[in-house]
Structure formats: structure tokens, C-alpha cells
Amino acid sequence: MTCAQLILPLETETSYAPEAFFVADHNRNAHDVLQKVTHNPVKTLYIWGEKACGKTHLAHMFSFHAGAHFLSPKDIVLQDFWEKVTAHPAFILENIETLQNEASLFHLLNSVKEGGKSLLLTSRNAPSDLPFTLPDLCSRLRGLEAYEIQSPDDLSASAFVYKRFSDFSMKASPLLVTYLLTHSARSYAALDKVITSFWQVSLKEKRRPTIQLLKEVLEQTPPLTA
To answer: Taking the domains of the chain in order of start, what are their residue ranges?
Structure first.
């Protein structure tokens, strides 16, 4: 059985604590603007970047500081939705590129503005690259204040690797981290995929998290597709 074939019912806990978020040049603008919004929350913001780049972590920090309520796609299509959540000052809707009901998203944007609420939208796509066709919605999204979380530099990639190892309750030696960073594609999504497979194989085969095991995982983990 290869690493790519392992699908295990294993659980882990990702830390979304503010102190666990590593602020660097590639994500500083997104981080800082969310900190400011907590003091002046009537605003809609858009954050985009690749998988595992920290969008959800920022969303949880925003939720904690601004009292924001996480929404699901099902929430925004309910007719009595706004009657149930008027107590919340702010909202978060993640991965909007996956939404299929464009009219409901447009209604959400209008309702937030009219109600004096704050809204954080996240996506893997830039506002101009979303798969929507409703002209008014596309125009509104392109006009939002948007911030991209870019690919990690060396220091950020290293911090990400240490954090993910900690999330999986694995100890990462400097040699192990260096080997991973020099042999894996330099993106959050690629690093996260390798570390997750590494953790799964280590548990499945009851092997210590060594460089040899990491080498095997890297050899058997297929590259990410666009």
C-alpha cells in the first residue's frame, strides 16, 4: 500500500490560537487589516490564497476578536437566516469559490451592508478568478478590499512545518525540517500534504518519524495538481 492510498480515520487538532500564527511579509497585510477591523468592524474583506496558507487560522482569529459567526453555504439560503443571527456583529464565509447559489451570496453581501455588519470572505481564487457568472455579484466581489496570502519564504515555510508537526503531536528535529524543505515543493499545500501523509504512515506502520521514513513518503506522494 502506498502513502497516497492511505485513508485513515485519524483525528488531530489544529491550533488556531493567535500566538500560533506566524506573521511574515507574505501574509502581514491580511493579518494586520483583520486586527484593525476588530476596532472598526463595519466592513467586508476578502482574503485569498492557496490551500493551507492560513486563511482559516486568520478567520478564527477574526472570530475571536470581532465576535464573528462562521456561516455555511446552507445558512445563506435560509429565508429566516437574518432573523436568527441578528445578535452577531460579524460573519465569516470560507471557500466561496465552492458556492453554487450565486444569488444567495449576492443577497448576503447586500444584507451585511444594509445591516451594518462585518463580513470576511475567503477563497483560493482571486476575486477576478471566481467561477461566478452573475454580473452584479462579480462586480461587487471585484470591488471588495482584498488581500492575497502569497507563497511562503524560507522562514515562513519553516515555521509552517514546525506548526503542522506540532498539530500532529510529532517532534520535528531541525534536520528533519531541513530535509523536508529541501526535497518538497515550496508551497503550503504541498508541505501540508507531505506532513499529513508522513503522520499517517508513521502511525499506520508504527514507525518513528525519521528522515528515512520521510524520504519514503516523499517518493510515494504524488505531486499536487492545479
So the answer is: 27-149, 152-220
Mean pLDDT of the chain: 86
Write down the pLDDT at residue 222. Answer: 74
Count of CB atoms situated within 10 Å of the CB of 137: 18
Tens digits of residue pLDDT in 118-164: 999 999 999 999 999 999 999 999 999 999 999 899 999 999 999 99
DSSP output for 107-155: HHHHHHHHHT-EEEEEESS-GGG-S---HHHHHHHHTSEEEEE----HH
Q: Which CATH number fits domain 152-220: 3.40.50, 3.30.450, 2.30.30, 1.10.8?
A: 1.10.8
Q: Which residues contact 200 (CB under 8 A, 6 or more apart)?
A: 3, 6, 8, 10
**CB-based contact 184:190 (threshold 8 Å):** yes
- In degrees and rounded to multiples of 5, residue 121 shows phi and psi of -110, 140
Long-range contacts of 79-87 (CB under 8 A, 24+ apart): 82/111, 82/115, 86/115
For residue 175, give the amino acid letter: L
Q: Would you mind telling me the total number of residues written for the chain in this entry? A: 226
Q: For residue 218, what is its C-alpha cell?
A: 516523499
Q: 133: which 3 cell numbers?
A: 457568472
CB atoms within 10 A of CB 177: 17
pLDDT digits over 176-197, tens only?
999 999 999 989 999 999 999 9
Question: What CATH architecture is 27-149?
Answer: 3-Layer(aba) Sandwich (3.40)
Burial class (CB in 10 A: 0-12, 13-18, 19+), 187: middle
